[in-house]
């Protein structure tokens, strides 16, 4: 399953920069861009290793005939057994010893270049596994594909008016279903009181469901896995390349410094271009150790790849750590609580002064949205923009009021998404009787007018024309209706 997803990601590289989902940019750095970089590096090394010749070894001709088979044997032997990071001038064989005296070069043996393609492939999987786990959590625990909601909102932004409204309604319905399911589950949680006490006393979230923290706590856990993985990759690369001494603790910086200072592999013997190999050959019942000099052109590629990967991993780990801190601040700091976030977007409504004192607003924040709803809205804002988040929030607000019997809301199309006609609020718990707005913001229950019973009354369409007009426009409209009224009287008489 993971391999198939990696292949699909590789095929979809041209669309990588347009990816939209339930992740922010540091998340995409881990599972999308880093996986892409590792796949490219793995492809280059694999081609150089298995299509071309990764090393070429020389050995004196022992038989005085063709050396093609002998060279092939030596190349394969040194490739599988490994070479030694010792210059041929300093390498020697002790024929009196059983192992040829190779024990003193044990710590100089190079065996990593055979495994570079495989290790790079494993690194790809390690960076993608948290994404698989995140998809499993959002689908299984929430009961719906949450990332699909974000993608639907993004598609709605680019759609025409009719399709825009349908997609927005679909996204809001899925969000409402998700939040309602989590809310119903929270009523049956035995840890509700304990969690509330811990939240009030210590600011801790012990469980996920009662406060609506299922998705958000899982998201922070996945981000932590991304950070741990990126940090461990630095250690794994250092161990894999046998750079265990303290001199190459930050081997990326040290190798780059060596290159810029003119210190080449002959002095450092890191990623050597030339190595030594000892081959045991037995002829006519007598075995002898033969020294072979090997050129390792593959290490020129490996050196550049691992210097780049070291700096890339540091960048990814740093970006992920900063992202974790930012999300913790967004969620739990006093300046970024749910009420601040909701009011920030509701301020765009003309009747915000009435909404901020609305007794239903607090219930909407604490019982309907909660932490998961706020998190999803933040993700929509990050991936789709503030305008899309504002429209989704208003539609959810309408649905919430409608479900509680406070409003009978109706949505229509407008150039800006949700438009407004007469904004009438049913009087409940101190809510205003009627509110009017200038700009098309939000549509609640439109006022309907019956046709006039007598000719003396102006038409209903004329009565509605002054909705949302300024004082001067209303005066002009009233004069016009007076003229219509006088004409209707003269026509009747």
Automatic annotation (TrEMBL):
Entry's Gene Ontology BP terms: monoatomic ion transmembrane transport
Sorted UniProt keywords: Cell membrane, Ion channel, Ion transport, Membrane, Transmembrane, Transmembrane helix, Transport
Highest taxon above the source species: Eukaryota
Keyword Ion transport carried by entry: yes
Region feature Disordered, mapped onto this chain: 447-475
TM helices/strands, residue ranges: 31-52, 112-134, 305-329
GO molecular function: gap junction channel activity
Membrane topology note: Multi-pass membrane protein
Subcellular location: Cell membrane
GO CC term, one of those recorded: gap junction
PROSITE patterns in UniProt: PANNEXIN
Known function: Structural component of the gap junctions.
Family to which this protein belongs: Belongs to the pannexin family.
Identification of the protein by name: Innexin
Organism: Macrostomum lignano
